[in-house]
Amino acid sequence: AQSVAQPEDQVNVAEGNPLTVKCTYSVSGNPYLFWYVQYPNRGLQFLLKYITGDNLVKGSYGFEAEFNKSQTSFHLKKPSALVSDSALYFCAVRDPRGSGGYQKVTFGTGTKLQVIP
Amino acid sequence: EAQVTQNPRYLITVTGKKLTVTCSQNMNHEYMSWYRQDPGLGLRQIYYSMNVEVTDKGDVPEGYKVSRKEKRNFPLILESPSPNQTSLYFCASRPGQDSYEQYFGPGTRLTVT
Questions:
Q1: Is 70 exceeded by the pLDDT of residue A100?
Q2: Angstrom distance (rounded) from CA A53 to CA B32
Q3: How far is B20 from chain A (nearest CA, A)?
Q4: Is the pLDDT of residue A104 over 80?
């Protein structure tokens, strides 16, 4: 069974400092990996994905994530945090082999990012 | 505007009173899903649909039903709601098997007393 772990319920960072939100995954094959962001009273919005290729992927709003196969990690990063980045962030994994033609997506429990002015 | 819509956005109801949460997408997507979001548990999939008349259970299907009679609509039905179904519900869609990004609705906050 596939799974995702986000070990930190909350991450606090000062505005202008670099931020990292951690994610580790477990899946049998080569994973598809995703980050989504949820602002208050809104649905989830897609940030970025890793499918194959370069281990460093860039996404929306200046975010990037690094895929590390040996550590089974996909940490979200941003060089300089903004107050407007404060939100709930979800990591997700999908096994491209699927079952019965369906590739299930499993989400982590979410990490609340608080950027302090 | 391409979007996933859900109605109602907020609902307070009593135990046992049947309710339906509607979900509609205008992007001609094949795949649709329902999730519930609970503190400390993240998003858990309730049901999914790969196309019209094709639905299957997700991780937490007990107490829920769905139907997919038209491509754009994927209603979630609670025949006899119970307090443990108090949650934040999201509908999501994506074009098909080879697509990556999911598009989420704004959420429905359900309280069952």
A1: no
A2: 28
A3: 19
A4: yes
Pick from B38, B24, B109, B101: nearest CA to A44: B101
For residue B61, which of B75, B78, B86, B73 has the smallest C-alpha distance? B78
More confident residue, A31 or B82: B82
Nearest Cα residue to A81 out of A11, A22, A7, A34: A11
Residue B45 has pLDDT above 80, yes or no: yes
Q: What residue of A is the nearest CA neighbor of B107?
A: A43
Q: To the nearest 10°, the Cα dihedral for B67, B59, B15, B53?
A: 10
Query: What average pLDDT does this structure show over A60-85?
Result: 96
Q: Which residue, B41, B38, B82, is CA-closest to B62?
A: B82
Kindly report the average pLDDT of chain B as a whole number.
95
B50 touches chain A (CB under 8 A): yes
Place of tokens 């329902």: B34
A100/B56 touch (CB, cutoff 8 Å), yes or no: yes
What's chain A look like in SS3? Answer: CCEEECCCCEEEEECCCCEEECCEEECCCCCEEEEEEECCCCCEEEEEEECCCCCEEECHHHCEEEEECCCCEEEEEECCCCHHHCEEEEEEEECCCCECCECCEEECCCEEEEEEC
**Nearest-angstrom CA–CA distance, A73 and B87:** 29
Query: What residue of B is the nearest CA neighbor of A41?
Result: B106
